[in-house]
Amino acid sequence: MKKLFVELGDRSYPIYIGSGLLQKPELFKKHIKSKQVLVVTNTTIAPLYLDTVLKNLSGYTVEHVILPDGEQYKNLESLLPIFDKLLACKFSRNATLIALGGGVVGDMGGFAAACYQRGIPFLQIPTTLLAQVDSSVGGKTGVNHPLGKNMIGAFYQPQCVIADADVLDTLADRELSAGLAEVIKYGLIRDYPFFEWLENNISLLLARDKNALAYAIEQSCLNKATIVAEDETETGVRATLNLGHTFGHAIETGSGYGSYLHGEAVAIGTCQAADLSRRKGWLTDDDVGRITGLFIKANLPVTPPAQLDPDKFLELMSVDKKNVDGKIRLILLNQIGKATLPDYVDQDLLVLTLKSYGRE
Ligand code: NAD
Ligand code: GLY
């Protein structure tokens, strides 16, 4: 088992990465300081892993909530059954919430924990590759609004992250690829050697080679933990984790939540950001080819949906947490392995990218 840390002073916490971690009661017990525990999961994950997790919790008063599965349920309304259960069972302020699932369950469970009685402790048990390499680490929690993705939420750090790579055995191939989009992101924004490693090892990852996956999860968490420790609430460098996400969120919102997986939308958005970086003169054609080529090899889409025209894109991109006074600010790439901080973009160049990239 590997143990990394997110260093945030008295809110620091470990990320455990390894095999068989869901069968280690001592890991859970170490981070649960109360008798009352609520496990939040969804209809797909419950039959696979809920019993395994519950077995670690003998001796506690344990309740669970099973949410419907899907990005389309990541909204305020779907949080209510969590609060209903916590209140009906008279869970108090020291109760612990366990979020068992992918990024949707993790973001929602974390937000419920942040809100209930103004904050109760919670554990992240990520079960998708995307959640293990990104969403479970760093304390971003929240839900979507019909007008904008992740627009309602809170920064709220977990007590620990337990990433058991064995659960990826049951993950669909399409979901594995979606997780790879965020893995590739770390190489692009700050870790060129990792990008090269990914170019050389992408087929091993797709074949679910255990060693390759373990390395990719660890390297991703290391990059994310370093960034979060430096800038917890995204006043600077943390925004680089949003490379491609402004385009991607527009694709998710504009196509109806759930049509594109988050990682798929991020892959397309990152290619659009790379195209814009080339138009700025920062990336070469060869760089853009390497970036799109890696996403394609990872079985990810790289062209925007035809029905989302440039005007609609611009409208959707104007609802984004990085924007200031309603003006779009984007993360671009100075080179492969080096992202820019968010900045206003030349509107003409952005429109060129929206009109041209992937539409010829
Ligand atoms: P997801 O949570 O919808 O999970 C994908 C699918 O896989 C779901 O159907 C789920 O039920 C299923 N699943 C989960 N684990 C499984 C397993 N082990 N075996 C079989 N099926 C399994 O999607 P995701 O890609 O994990 O997360 C995407 C979400 O994460 C988006 O809402 C995105 O906004 C959010 N996100 C948050 C952050 C953050 O920092 N908080 C970062 C990146 C993404
Ligand atoms: N996934 C973006 C962040 O955690 O900041």
CA-atom Rg in angstroms: 20 Å
Total domain modules: 2
For the record, give the distance between the C-alpha atoms at the N and C termini, rounded to a whole number. 48 Å
Question: Percentage of helical residues?
Answer: 40-55%
Structural account:
The protein folds into 2 domains: 2-170, Rossmann fold (3-Layer(aba) Sandwich); 173-356, Dehydroquinate synthase-like - alpha domain (Dehydroquinate synthase-like, alpha domain, Up-down Bundle). It contains 13 helices and 13 strands. A 7-stranded mixed beta sheet has the order 1-2-9-6-5-3-4, with helices on both faces. It has helices at 25-30, 46-55, 76-88, 103-115, 129-135, 173-190, 192-206, 210-230, 245-255, 262-279, 285-297, 310-317, 347-356; strands at residues 2-6, 13-18, 36-42, 61-67, 96-101, 122-126, 140-145, 148-155, 160-164, 329-330, 333-335, 338-339, 343-344. Helices cover 45% and strands 18% of the residues. The chain is of the alpha/beta class. It is globular. It starts with a strand and ends with a helix. The structure holds nicotinamide-adenine-dinucleotide and glycine (GLY). The site of nicotinamide-adenine-dinucleotide has 30 residues, from helix 4, helix 5, helix 6 and helix 10.
